[in-house]
Amino acid sequence: MLTGMLQPTHLIILLAIALIFLGPKRLPGAGRALGQGLREFKASIGGESPDQPQLPPATPDSETPPV
Question: How far apart are alpha carbons 18 and 31 in whole angstroms?
Fold first, then answer.
């Protein structure tokens, strides 16, 4: 049922409809808001807080320079 949902022609038609309704000036802001909402949703599902800074990956002790 959902296999043909994300075909390129469907995505182009959806983008054209969004451009008609929102206009070229508000379309980037709407995309930004959608992306931020998806990031917040993903963080809430994963149990992470979006306010917490990302920690750099830990390096193994063998790669640390001698002091």
Answer: 10
